[in-house]
Structure formats: structure tokens, C-alpha cells
Amino acid sequence: GDLFPWLCGAEPYPTSRYGSQCMQPNNIMGIENICELAARLLFSAVEWARNIPFFPDLQITDQVALLRLTWSELFVLNAAQCSMPLHVAPLLAAAGLHASPMSADRVVAFMDHIRIFQEQVEKLKALHVDSAEYSCLKAIVLFTSDACGLSDVAHVESLQEKSQCALEEYVRSQYPNQPTRFGKLLLRLPSLRTVSSSVIEQLFFVRLVGKTPIETLIRDMLLSGSSFNWPYMSIQ
Predict the structure, then answer these.
(1) Residue 235's pLDDT is what?
(2) Under CATH, to which class is 3-18+29-224 assigned?
(3) Rounded Cα distance, 159 and 143, in Å
(4) In the predicted model, what is the mean pLDDT of residues 177-185?
(5) What keywords is this UniProt entry annotated with (predicted)?
(6) Other CB atoms closer than 10 Å to residue 150's CB: what's the count?
(7) pLDDT for residue 24
(8) In angstroms, what CA-CA distances link 21 with 28, 55, 85, 189?
(9) 36 CB neighbour count, 10 Å cutoff
(10) pTM (2 d.p.)
(11) What percent of the chain shows pLDDT beyond 70?
(12) Contacts of 122 (CB under 8 A, 6+ apart)
């Protein structure tokens, strides 16, 4: 399909964009660095969406609705794609708990959610998903008719189908000796929704943006594009 080369061309990151920290999973990253990396992953998800075909042509209210619903799934895909060092997640949690103590049962639930996030990233990494496949998977996630109040549900559904066909064609041509690969990739997507967006927010973004809701950030990123300035901190 015509969609495919465009999807891949829209990837905002040759990994140089993140510097080398992205590609060295054993790198010991401090809490500031990991939060900064998380911020870049979120920003790059929005930038990527702004640059893929068809998405910018949707009504702006639809663009916002789609990103607000899917940002955490896109974040997990980006975290896996850039091998985010996940061993720091418990450190982040500990630092967060120190800042605002929780009851014991909430701590247990929070740690469970962190484990789910880590598992989803590890399962994607185990499949050795390539960057073209990541682009298609992100498009399948983004173009969801589950978003509230879409002005043209059928159009969004057709874009999701196009993205799925692009992935299927690509996998068939690039991995002919892995007939189950397409199915395995698709089957990773529903479980991305088991990752709690509020836990990602609490884990990575509370330090950056304080009380600003992530949905507000996403809308601002979408509307201001590359001129977006992070509240309370500078990421260049």
C-alpha cells in the first residue's frame, strides 16, 4: 500500500535524536535522565503522529481524541523500540513514594502495574520488532475507533485497516520464513492496554509536569508542534 513508505519516513528518531543513552540498556541512568528520556518518548509519539499520512488531515478534535486515548500504548511501543532501561523503574517508584507516601496496599498495586509495564516492553523486545514494524504497530494503535466523539469513525477504521494491511504485506515480504510473525505482532497490541496510563504518568511525568494532566500536555504538543516548551523544565 501507499501508506507504508510514509509511515516509516515519519519516524522522528534515528536514534541519534535521543543521543546514545537510548541504545545502551546497561547504561546506569539517573532519575533525571530517565524522566527526560520519557518526556522525549512522549513528545516523539506526538511528533510522529503529526508527520504520518492521513493523521494531520483529521479534524483537530479527532487528532486530540486519538492521542489522548492511545498515548500510553504508543509510549510503551516507543520504550521498547529504544530499549528504555527498565531496571530503573523500581528506583523511580521508590523516589516517587518517598515524595508522596502511599498506603501499603497501594504500593503493592503500584509495583504490580510497574511489573506489567516492564513485561510488555520485554515481550516486544523478545520479538525483535524492526522499525518498520513499529511504525505500522503504532499506526494500528493510533487509528482506533474506540476514541470518544470521533467525527468520522468509518474513516478512522479504514486507516487502521490500511495500517494493518501495510504491516501484513511488509512482514510477508521481509520475513517469509516466519509465517506466524504477523499474528504474533498483532497479538501484542491488546495487552498494551493493560499498562496503566496513570501509572506511567505517576512514574515518569509527575516530576516533570507536577499537576498538569498529561492530556493537556498532549493537546499542547499537538497544537504547538516543534515549538512546544515543556512546563517547568527545558528539554532541548
Answers:
(1) 43
(2) mainly alpha
(3) 6
(4) 97
(5) Nucleus, Receptor, Transcription, Transcription regulation
(6) 20
(7) 45
(8) 9, 30, 9, 26
(9) 21
(10) 0.82
(11) 73
(12) 86
